[in-house]
């Protein structure tokens, strides 16, 4: 069934795991993710950005998710990712989403509270839950590009007031994750024996401070792709150019999932799997032109990637 995150987060918090929130933009992505979840019996959040909605159209996305629910029988939450206005959130609430994010984290604290509270009021009246954000992640999301200098960690001393004044149902925080495939510059990283970039560790000390002030409250991590180097190599070896792409090490996400983090957002890894697979296919079969022939292995690799995340990173397999 189409569900909210209320039950999912309660069980995830108590069970020491996290729900995967994967971005969807077309049929093959929806199928790859949901077939993986079905195989390992995992609850799911499928999320749609403003850009995804502009690309694929609200109705198509709703129907794709409904089809996935019918095919899998899984509890799936349909969530608006990075809603940037009350109007966009309202449109998704009215249009059948079960969860919305209002991201006013770039606004001053008081303004963030005000707009978030307005969205919460409307959403709760309609049985929909709300994710809000405090702190600013570096990286690119939709049209917003937050430079590393403008990014800042969540201030733990603000979280209680924010949650109690807004009534939000979950809170996205900034503890060092970042959007996109280039989460850190080479200068911010060290290198391992293989010469691969090793990013600075997430700020678990800040997370601990937040959890002390919000015991039992579901925390969300954005920008949590790990940027698998096998797919970066596949892209680079087949005509692509993604030098120094780097993500969050999976072990740190596992650690977050064991604690208060109940939702972990992954988009870039799906893009890398899809693009790497298609680039390789084109390189190896320059004579082929039937989209099904390259979308099929792309979908299969998304499925394998998601299965790996559900079992080895999020720990939500068997929890549907
Ligand atoms: O946080 C951003 C997500 O990866 C969605 O990206 O706005 O390009 O659809 P998008
Ligand atoms: P990634 O770019 O790390 O996949 O983050 C996705 C995200 O946070 C979507 O909201
Ligand atoms: Zn995000
Ligand atoms: Na958790």
From TrEMBL:
Its cofactor is Zn(2+). GO terms for molecular function: fructose-bisphosphate aldolase activity. Its EC number is 4.1.2.13. SUPFAM superfamilies: Aldolase. Coiled coil: none annotated. CDD domains: TBP_aldolase_IIB. It is an enzyme of class 4 (lyase). Keywords: Lyase, Metal-binding, Zinc. It comes from the Bacteria. PANTHER family: D-TAGATOSE-1,6-BISPHOSPHATE ALDOLASE (PTHR30304), D-TAGATOSE-1,6-BISPHOSPHATE ALDOLASE SUBUNIT GATY-RELATED (PTHR30304:SF0). This is Class II fructose-1,6-bisphosphate aldolase. It comes from Pseudoflavonifractor hominis.
């Amino acid at each position: 069934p189409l569900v909210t995150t209320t039950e999912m987060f309660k069980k995830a918090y108590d069970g020491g795991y996290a729900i995967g929130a994967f971005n969807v933009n077309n049929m093959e992505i929806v199928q790859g993710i949901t077939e993986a979840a079905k195989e390992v019996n995992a609850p799911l959040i499928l999320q749609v950005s403003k850009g995804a909605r502009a690309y694929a159209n609200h109705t198509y996305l709703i129907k794709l998710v409904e089809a996935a629910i019918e095919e899998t029988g899984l509890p799936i939450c349909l969530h608006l990712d990075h809603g940037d206005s009350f109007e966009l959130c309202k449109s998704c609430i009215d249009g059948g989403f079960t969860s919305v994010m209002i991201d006013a984290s770039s606004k001053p604290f008081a303004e963030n509270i005000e707009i978030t509270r307005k969205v919460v009021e409307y959403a709760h009246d309609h049985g929909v839950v709300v994710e809000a954000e405090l702190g600013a992640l570096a990286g690119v999301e939709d049209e917003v590009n937050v430079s590393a200098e403008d990014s800042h960690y969540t201030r733990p001393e603000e979280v209680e007031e924010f949650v109690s004044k807004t009534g939000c149902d979950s809170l996205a925080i900034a503890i060092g994750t970042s959007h996109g495939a280039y989460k850190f510059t080479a200068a911010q990283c060290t290198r391992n024996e293989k010469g691969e970039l090793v990013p600075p560790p997430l700020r678990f000390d800040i997370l601990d401070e937040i959890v002390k002030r919000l015991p039992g409250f579901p925390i969300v991590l954005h920008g949590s792709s790990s940027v698998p180097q096998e797919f970066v190599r596949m892209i680079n070896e087949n005509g692509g150019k993604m030098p120094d792409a780097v993500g969050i090490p999976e072990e740190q996400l596992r650690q977050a999932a064991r604690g208060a983090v109940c939702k972990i957002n992954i988009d870039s890894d799906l893009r890398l799997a899809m693009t790497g697979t298609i680039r390789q296919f084109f390189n190896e079969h320059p004579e082929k032109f039937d989209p099904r022939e390259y979308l099929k292995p792309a979908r299969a690799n998304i499925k394998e990637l998601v299965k790996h995340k559900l079992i080895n990173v999020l720990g939500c397999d068997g929890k549907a």
